[in-house]
Each structure stands twice: as C-alpha cells, then as structure tokens.
Amino acid sequence: MRKLPALGALRVFEAAARRLSFKDAAEELSVTPTAVSHQIKHLEQAIGVPLFERTPRKVALTAAGRLLFPTLRDGFDGFERAIEQVRRAQGSQVATLSSTVAFMARRLATRAGSFRDAYPDWTLRLDASNKLVDLDSDADAAIRYGNGRYPGLLVEHLFQDRFAPVCSPRLNIRTPRDLRKATLIHFEWGEGARDDERAVVWRQWLDGAGVQGVDADAGLAFTEELHAVQATIAGQGIGLLSLTLVAEELAAGVLVRPFELSLESFHYDLVCSPRAAARPAAMILREWVARQFGGAQNEELA
C-alpha cells in the first residue's frame, strides 16, 4: 500500500511550484490563496520539511521543493496525457481555443462553423477570457493580443492591429472640422495595457493628424471595448476602434473610415505550450487559425 500525502495537496503544490505564486495557483485551481497556503502547510507537515521559502512579495522553492517538483510535474503531465488518450478512444475529440472576449465576439464566433467543415470529427470549444489561461491544462492554444513576448510558449505571429476613426455613414463626417461637433467614443484599456503607447486613444490620433480645436476627452466613454464598438455601429458617435474588430462592418459599408491615418497598436499571436504542440488538438487549431487569420490575408483587413 502506497504511503502518499493527499493527492489534492500534491496538486496544489505542483501548481504553486510551477507558477511560483500562491495567488496564481489559487486562480488556476479556483480556490482562495488562503486555501492554497493551508494545503501546502499540511503537505509540509506530512513530509516533515519546508517546500517554499516565503517572503512578503514572493515565494521560492526550497531545495526539498526543487527535488519534489519535477517528479510531480511530470506525473501530472502523464495523468493529463493518459486522460486525453482515454477521451480520444471514446470518440470525444475536443479542441479548446482561448482568446480575448472582444476577438471572440467579433472575429472567432462568426467563423466557428468553418472548423466543423474542416474537421467534422472534432468539437471546437471556444473559451473567451481576457486572462492568460494555462495552456498546459485549460486550453490547447490561444490567440493573444499584446506585444508578442510570451516566454516559454511557442508563438506564431498572425497580424498587426491598427486603430482609426470609424463611424456610420449617416453621420456624414468627412473633414477634421466635422470632428468638432461630433461625439467621440472612447473605451478603457485594461490595467496591463493602459500605460503602453500602443494602447491608442483619441489624443494620440488627433495629435498625429494635426487636428486642433477638438476636446480629446469629451464624448461617450465605455469600460468595455465591445460596447464602444456597438455604440459606433449604432451611429452614436465616431469611435477610434480596432480595424480588426470592425473589419466586417467596414467591408459591408455599415461603417466608414473618414480619414486615412491609422495608428499601429498591439498584435495578435497564436500561442501554445511546447508540451502540447504535438497533440492533435493543438496541431488542428494551428492549421485552422492559420487559414482563417494568417498574415497577408488579414493584414488587408487590419
């Protein structure tokens, strides 16, 4: 009979050791940081040695923790592979793709049917989240929006995003002078991006276009980007929006670009874990995403 600590405690330790953060481990496991701390204390008591060095700002593995972690990590990876093989054997083939909420709503959801056409034996599971999901356990691949630097992951560049003023043709905005009487539509960038110069706002565009006499902060402000897009489509004002997210409306003439100037922003990348790259689900998602959003084709839209 094996004499092992509780499996739950070992799972908590593996997550905390992999992320070197009790808080991040708690988010991954959907528990509180306090619960993570208690589980690890129980495990340390059961083993008889400390596994983490704790400081006010961070945690680090002790020598004992570093010895234990690789074996547990490989063990849980093995569990995951075995479970996936069992699922495939039962005919349950699911490919999970994560992306931001905005990109999911505006670009992925409208193309999801083509996945089934290409891979009829697979189910596409779309996970909309603005948080960085764990690509070893929660998704097979992800389309991320940012600076393109994702340490430890395989990254395939898709396309660069650009921002420009867009509006309903009913507003009859044609010249910079028209902006003085127009309602500017804004949205709030997320905490991780708002201080980056690529988080484009109206003041940047007006300065770049040399437009004066327009209050860059006035108008309608939304906390969510999707709501700013919807308000613009509804003709409530002129939005400085991602050309990627409104590509279909621009192509259909629902929205127009009164001005040529656009500003470069973040870019979209397909990422996956090196440990998952050879799995069928990840390979299929990489093929499908490349066909849907690959470089040259999408640069024209963006």
Overview of the molecule:
With 302 residues, the chain is of the alpha/beta class. The protein folds into 3 domains: 7-89, Orthogonal Bundle (Arc Repressor Mutant, subunit A); 94-159 and 267-301, D-Maltodextrin-Binding Protein, domain 2, CATH 3.40.190; 161-264, D-Maltodextrin-Binding Protein, domain 2 (3-Layer(aba) Sandwich), CATH 3.40.190. Helices cover 40% and strands 20% of the residues. It is built from 11 helices and 10 strands. Helix 1 packs across helix 4. The N and C termini lie far apart (61 Å). GO terms for molecular function: DNA-binding transcription factor activity; sequence-specific DNA binding. Belongs to the LysR transcriptional regulatory family. InterPro entries: LysR-type_TF_proteobact-type, LysR_HTH_N, LysR_subst-bd, WH-like_DNA-bd_sf, WH_DNA-bd_sf. This is LysR family transcriptional regulator, glycine cleavage system transcriptional activator.
Tell me the layout of helices and strands.
Layout: H1 7-19, H2 22-29, H3 33-47, E1 52-54, E2 59-61, H4 63-89, E3 94-99, H5 101-108, H6 113-118, E4 123-128, E5 141-146, E6 154-166, E7 184-187, H7 202-209, E8 220-222, H8 225-233, E9 238-242, H9 247-252, E10 263-272, H10 280-293, H11 295-301
Parallel strand pairs: 3-4, 3-5, 7-8, 7-9
Antiparallel strand pairs: 1-2, 5-10, 6-9, 6-10
Organism: Pseudoduganella namucuonensis
Domain HTH lysR-type: 5-62
Protein name: LysR family transcriptional regulator, glycine cleavage system transcriptional activator
